[in-house]
Amino acid sequence: MAEIQLQRVGKSYDGKTMAVRDLDLHCPQGEMLALLGPSGCGKSSTLKMVAGIEPISSGAILFDGVDVSRQGSAARNVAMVFEDYSLYPHMSTYDNIAFPLRIRGTPHNELKKRVDGVVAMLGLGDLLAEPVRSLSGGAQQRVSIGRALVRDPALVMFDEPLSHLDADQKVMLRTEIRRLQTTAGLTSVLVTHDQTEAMAMADRIAVMSQGLLQQVGSPEALYHAPANLFVAGFIGESPMNFFAAVHTGSQLALRDLPGCALALDRLDLQAHAQDITLGIRPEDIVIGAAATGTDALPLQVRVLDRECCGDRDVLRVAAGEVVFHIEQPAPCAVRPGDVLPCGLPLSRLHAFDTASGRSLGARRSAC
Ligand SMILES: Nc1ncnc2c1ncn2[C@@H]1O[C@H](COP(=O)(O)OP(=O)(O)OP(=O)(O)O)[C@@H](O)[C@H]1O
């Protein structure tokens, strides 16, 4: 397995607009790195450039310190797992897995040993003779992972591998892929638009937007210390709440909530900006009597509605005209129409420069 480095990699399809700009990334040997971002952010272009399917427009791609930018896919020994499995439907599980070795003319004994090893690793022993078209989606994807691994690749690229599966199979297979990836020490790149998938599977996540890398870090780092407004809003199942604020002397006043302000020195800002966006995660907001402590920004809210999400309830609330979300452990006694105090604990607040989007620091530094 290889160590992968991207150095200022750029991609333009038309010679004018950049689909990927100056991308610096490092995937150490044995790590799973997720490329995450909305549609059109440049993840597939990046995957294709790393795999050697698309040429790069600028920069360099290194495998184990060797520049492979001009090499094709085969020379880089990159295996791909696609969302649509890309198997031969009429062929058996065994023959699909053995296929990459057969076309390379691998001697029979060696081929059998390698296929048997992969079959055991993936628990596909009972399905060897089945034509893959008769298998469930999850089993087909396991066969396609087997086919990727059997050739002992330098890098495995997973391109939205769970997109075609139902919810149960998704959860099972993502655990399975993660187990395989860690036990076999696979260097892998996962391309996904699904943050839950990226958070559950990857060692580190590279968040992209409009061809630019926004932040790369562990799932925890992205969640607790987002580098900018984009990452703060993109990561988290219930998105972060944002409040526009402005300096008035030594105070930071919330723009849309007259009379609501806090002394600037109560925030641990690492830089200053005229217009600041405060952010807080829905689960960090406190409601009821516990909300009135001095270390919180107090607000009076009206509950608009309540969404039941199993072990937690999500409340949509309004303070004046400002609507935001609060998450509470379920069952929560609050009902639509209730008016109650809530507090935004200062230790949980994130602050961003509104103009640039860049983080100005957060009191909590969990990572
Ligand atoms: N073959 C191509 N020719 C021209 N433009 C392309 C080509 N492939 C991608 N693009 C453009 O490059 C930009 C990045 O696309 P890319 O497919 O890499 O993003 P993505 O994040 O993978 O999106 P999606 O999740 O929808 O596949 C987009 O503006 C897209 O229109």
TrEMBL record:
This is sn-glycerol 3-phosphate transport system ATP-binding protein/inositol-phosphate transport system ATP-binding protein. The keyword Coiled coil does not apply. GO terms for cellular component: ATP-binding cassette (ABC) transporter complex, substrate-binding subunit-containing. SUPFAM superfamilies: MOP-like, P-loop containing nucleoside triphosphate hydrolases. Keywords: ATP-binding, Cell membrane, Membrane, Nucleotide-binding, Translocase, Transport. Residues 4-235 form the ABC transporter domain. It comes from the Bacteria. GO terms for molecular function: ABC-type transporter activity; ATP binding; ATP hydrolysis activity. InterPro entries: AAA+_ATPase, ABC_transporter-like_ATP-bd, ABC_transpr_MalK/UgpC-like, Mo/tungstate-bd_C_term_dom, NA-bd_OB-fold, P-loop_NTPase, Transp-assoc_OB_typ2. PANTHER family: MALTODEXTRIN IMPORT ATP-BINDING PROTEIN MSMX, TREHALOSE IMPORT ATP-BINDING PROTEIN SUGC. The keyword ATP-binding applies.
